[in-house]
Design a protein that fits this description.
Order of helices and strands: HHHHHHHHHHHHHHHHHEEHEEEE
Helix content: 40-55%
Structural class: alpha+beta
Shape: globular
Strand content: 5-15%
Number of helices: 18
Distance between the termini: 58 Å
Strand order of the largest sheet: 2-1-5-4-3-6
Length: 431
């Protein structure tokens, strides 16, 4: 076992941290210094009473010396290294966790918190641009402020006003101030989300995306079959509506795990260069299943960042995993040229498409997409379809020319695009 092989190293690190001499520890537990030296260099196995005695001297739990940090903490540290770290010694994560378990847990928890905050900031940014409720509230604020400013300008102007007109203008200012206060309260209510409370997010879908962002879209408790989708949902702290969205996602995730266990899948992904077509051919798995498993590869283990988008037949995003260079609005207005949408016109046909973004750096992404009918259509009933797409950054330059694509028409400078549905905002440079 890996834990047994590293137990001696953890004993030595803990002893050095406490400033204890090898001979002193050996004498206390009743063994020779040379035997303890062999243990510390992983040349002798250790367990039972001797392990308990050494752990007591070192003031550490015996399980920590044998097992090291728990899997979730290590996964969290590796995720932090892959997302936020630079020049981080990922291979020494377990060593750090064994020596400083408290700091290791803090690193993992902070990485989750940062990911959740980033997801919340992006959600709020998208809502500022696309949420009709929020847009309406902001419009009411601007209208009220404009009314107050205009009325105040009249009242302080050079023209003398009789008492009746002054009373009317004062009443207008009062009414507009009440409207302003009500609109401000509406905005606060729309944007407010209690700290560490995903159920406070504005929409159930946002709650689910924030929860998935905390996990890095890799649900360890389902990977090792320690928990069920139902038990995870019960502990997630989400509202009823969000839970009704999360449960089917986790149920499908568990089915994907059963079909493509992570240990074998991760190795095959590396061996095939993360090519979903090759993986599907070698495993016989469905293409959409392979795409979801690629998006669930754990961060910090050398895998490339892989984004994920899933939509229904209306083009509404159901699942979204962001990576650098890949972001989609949550409330509509998304560029229709993304393969996740175009795949709906060619059901059951997997395809690959390189795209290039108009972001000044001409970021290039490689997309793999497929849409699937969820049930066989029958007379009188429209088909139900789901489209799945993964996105990989920095693909090779060789191959067909990439498709020029955008994020949203409102911020896209490609003025000649035939798929444009609305004009760009003022100040967006044409491209």
């Amino acid at each position: 076992m890996v834990g047994q092989k590293l137990a001696g190293s953890r004993i030595r690190e803990r002893r050095l941290d406490r400033g204890l001499r090898q001979a002193a520890v050996a004498e206390t537990v009743g063994i020779s210094a040379s035997y303890l030296n062999l243990i510390e260099h992983n040349r002798r196995r250790i367990g039972g009473k001797l392990l308990t005695n050494i752990a007591r001297v070192l003031e550490v739990e015996p399980a920590l010396l044998i097992e090291g940090a728990d899997t979730e903490t290590l996964d969290g540290m590796r995720t932090a290294a892959s997302v936020f770290g630079k020049d981080v010694e990922v291979a020494r994560a377990e060593e750090l966790a064994a020596r400083y378990p408290g700091w290791a847990t803090l690193i993992a928890d902070q990485a989750q918190r940062i990911a959740a905050l980033q997801a919340q900031v992006q959600a709020l940014g998208d809502r500022m641009a696309h949420d009709p409720q929020l847009s309406g509230a902001l419009h009411d604020v601007i209208t009220a402020v404009s009314g107050i400013r205009s009325t105040a300008a009249i009242l302080v102007g050079p023209e003398d006003l009789d008492a009746d007109w002054q009373k009317r203008f004062h009443q207008n200012i009062h009414d507009d101030s009440l409207r302003l206060a009500a609109s401000g309260e509406a905005i606060v209510a729309l944007l407010a989300a209690p700290e560490a409370d995903l159920a406070g997010a504005a929409a159930p879908t946002e709650q689910v995306w924030a929860w998935l962002a905390q996990t890095g879209f890799h649900v360890t408790a389902l990977e090792d079959e320690r928990e069920t989708p139902q038990s995870i949902c019960a502990a997630a702290g989400l509202g009823p509506a969000a839970t009704s969205i999360l449960l089917p996602y986790l149920t499908r995730y568990a089915a994907d795990v059963a079909a493509l266990p992570m240990g074998r899948f991760a190795k095959l992904a590396r061996d095939t260069g993360y090519d979903p077509s090759q993986i599907a051919l070698q495993t016989g798995a469905r293409f959409d299943q392979v795409l979801r498993r690629l998006a669930s590869l754990p961060a910090g283990e050398g895998h490339p960042p892989i984004g994920l988008a899933q939509c229904d037949a209306s083009g509404t995003l159901q699942v979204f995993k962001q990576i650098a260079g890949f972001a989609l609005p949550r409330f509509g207005g998304t560029c229709p040229l993304w393969p996740v949408f175009s795949a709906l016109a060619r059901p059951e046909q997997p395809f690959q498409q390189d795209v290039v973004l108009p972001d000044g750096e001409e970021t290039r992404l490689r997309c793999f997409a497929v849409s699937n009918l969820q049930a066989l259509p029958h007379l009188g009933a429209p088909p139900t379809a789901t489209s799945t797409m993964i996105v990989v950054a920095h693909p090779p330059d060789h191959g067909p020319a990439p498709l020029p694509i955008g994020i949203s028409c409102r911020i896209c400078p490609r003025m000649g695009c035939e798929s444009r549905r609305e004009p760009a905002l003022t100040g967006v440079a044409p491209g």
